[in-house]
Amino acid sequence: MEIKIKALKFDPDQRLTAFIEKKVSRLARFFDSENNIAEVTLKNDVDGKMARIQIHIPGEDLLIERDAKTFEDAITAGVDAMKEKITRSKEKKQE
């Protein structure tokens, strides 16, 4: 899985980038093909930090947005929600 990280109006440090790649790469277990692209967009909001995870799989795009006090918390919550969304999507395709 290819992971693209975009940060709006700031540069993420190496530690944050490594954390994102580690967490998001775990989602690759849920896919059959290796041609999937995950785009992670980070944004500083007035209320906190926002993480947007979008996964492009053949025939479908999955999107999750999460807000939290830190980017790490937002990424963790987003990856957990994306796992559930991928599972539901696969179940719909099998029916």
Mind explaining what this structure looks like?
The chain is of the alpha+beta class. Helix 1 runs parallel beside helix 2. The two termini are 26 Å apart. It has a four-stranded mixed beta sheet, covered by helices on one side. The mean pLDDT is 90. A hairpin with a 2-residue loop joins strand 3 and strand 4. It is globular. The protein has a single domain, classed as 2-Layer Sandwich (Double Stranded RNA Binding Domain).
List its salient traits.
95 residues, Double Stranded RNA Binding Domain, four-stranded mixed beta sheet, 2 helices, 38% helix
Mean pLDDT reading = 90
Measured between the Cα atoms of the first and last residue, the distance is 26 Å
Tally the beta strands.
4
Q: Which class do the helix and strand fractions yield?
A: alpha+beta
CATH topology: Double Stranded RNA Binding Domain
Strand content: 25-35%
Topology order in helix (H) and strand (E) letters: EHEEEH
Largest sheet geometry:
4 strands, mixed
Helicity range of the residues?
25-40%
Number of domains: 1
Describe the SSE topology.
Elements: E1 2-8, H1 14-25, E2 37-44, E3 49-57, E4 60-68, H2 71-94
Explain briefly what this protein structure is.
This protein has two helices and four strands. It has 95 residues and is of the alpha+beta class.
